[in-house]
Amino acid sequence: METPALIVDKDIFEANMDAMTSLLSGTTLKLRPHYKSNKCAAIARRQIEHGAVGITCAKLSEALDLCDAGIENILIANQITDGEKIFRVALLAKKCHLIICVDDKDNARALSAAAVSCGSTVYCYVEYEIGMRRCGIEDDEEYIETAELIRELPGLKYAGIQAYAGHVSHMVTEEERREHTEKEQQKIRALKEKLIEHGFPKDLDISGGSTGTAVIKAAGGLYTELQAGSYLFLDSTYGGLQNLPFKNSLYVLSTVVSVRGNRVMLDAGVKSIGVDQGMPAVLKLEGTPVRCSLVDANEEHVKLFDPDTELKNGEKVLLIPGHCCSTVNLYDKMYFVRGGKVVDRLEITARGCSR
Amino acid sequence: METPALIVDKDIFEANMDAMTSLLSGTTLKLRPHYKSNKCAAIARRQIEHGAVGITCAKLSEALDLCDAGIENILIANQITDGEKIFRVALLAKKCHLIICVDDKDNARALSAAAVSCGSTVYCYVEYEIGMRRCGIEDDEEYIETAELIRELPGLKYAGIQAYAGHVSHMVTEEERREHTEKEQQKIRALKEKLIEHGFPKDLDISGGSTGTAVIKAAGGLYTELQAGSYLFLDSTYGGLQNLPFKNSLYVLSTVVSVRGNRVMLDAGVKSIGVDQGMPAVLKLEGTPVRCSLVDANEEHVKLFDPDTELKNGEKVLLIPGHCCSTVNLYDKMYFVRGGKVVDRLEITARGCSR
Questions:
Q1: Which among A158, A212, A177, A192 has a CA at the least distance from the CA of A34?
Q2: Are B270 and A260 an interchain contact pair (Cβ–Cβ within 8 Å)?
């Protein structure tokens, strides 16, 4: 196979899918997996067949890809503020059950106006800031006012709380993740009670969570939807976390293109492997780790220091990406392998869908 | 226009193209611009029309794209060591004047065997290590032995020295860049003399250089080919360099999607802007810099601290990418604008061509 190539170990991928089903079975937590990690319509369909209530995505263009692939329940877990895009959201809401995140009253009014003129209903999760310091409303009073405004506005339906704590996802020890998650859940529980006092339904959705906090959220009994995406693949960053019920299934196959003493250059760089969360791990083709240090990643190369001159020129190696999501977005196809053979080639249908 | 979108200021782009023509006119240095920066066949064709002797690229898949677009003289400025790819190199050499970099004798032998069986001639630059510590031979004796081997091997032609000093390209002061370049040129000059003593022609090609060292290489009289690519666009990293005859023409158009106090989130992140060489600069649509600090870039957001609460929700801003090459590779199209209007939309034909 020509390198660099994106490879998925199908057995482990399927075991990860089953591990998630087991984790959530018997709990009140439903899976709404994030599309940003796989961007592959065939995988999204498979997740729905395995019991997911819908799919989470980051961008309108991803939502359009999902709807086009027959996914009927879609959450865009971000704000959309551009006037024309707001109309496209309202139009898409005629074709599927569409939920969008809101953290601003004027944005809610603009969404309402668009939904009314398109004759659609746009479901809204009002985003709650629980420590990530990205989007979302921190103040409970402002949160409730915004939810009440959405309840009143025509064309919109308040559907629940978006509460995503991406910053907790990669904390190494389970204790750390648990401690942070429990604090956040207290804050969310208090908000939920206030919302109920203001006449919102008791069974409102609370959506968030990730691969790193899946176990804790499943046991917590508060969240109704889990937005994990990376659990199917993992990466070298998740590989450093304690007590995850998932295993690494994703690799970039790469070739050694130059060996000069202990300096080894591979044919994969930042244009073919995501290093935004850390450097990749290097394995021999049979799966054993190469004892080397990663010196650098540039556009088309990863540079290794190979103290034992273990790697030979032309040799193939497996890289575990530092970040699965940004890596997948660099490829058009992923190859599923089993027993050393390609058994499937899936199109990454939403590759580059950042609009 | 939907955001994030890749925008090129056509006037500045054309001024950069002209500035390069002026810089090289009257010198012995020819332009062999690097495809990695624009990955756009229409731009490569235009560079050839403007006097480039050929195009440099990083990967076989980029070379195939260039040949498919009618480019007749192509340098793959990297080593190719995979057995099947070596055959594809030999096949491609039947369709165009193809030069490839070599730093290993066994690799030269494999290329020769493939060229013989395909009935083609593969031109080789033997790569010389001049301080970047990536690929390339450091020892002069080994260099000359490898060049001599290539001279003897059927199907191959030794064509010159690849000497690329990427590490010098981004040094801030011109003095620093000049000092390093002059040291390297001494080393190359000495090698060239030894090669001539060993019967290699006096007019052998010396290929390398970048946007940051173009002025110095043009005045140096040693290099015969300049591999600059970024000069058409620049980026925020090049923007910090002294005395470049080029200006920034490349932007990512982005929308503010959330304003929470001084915290502003944009709709472009590492999936739509390359941050591998630094964070982007932020400008208002009319081109004035926004006084803000960039806190973070994650998958789909850049996070700003906006001390003057200058930016409004839904507002469009221009980002100057930290790295033009890795940014262009994330898009399928680039929009050329003039006077606030789109006047061209070019396909990024080699987007994702990392094989």
A1: A212
A2: no
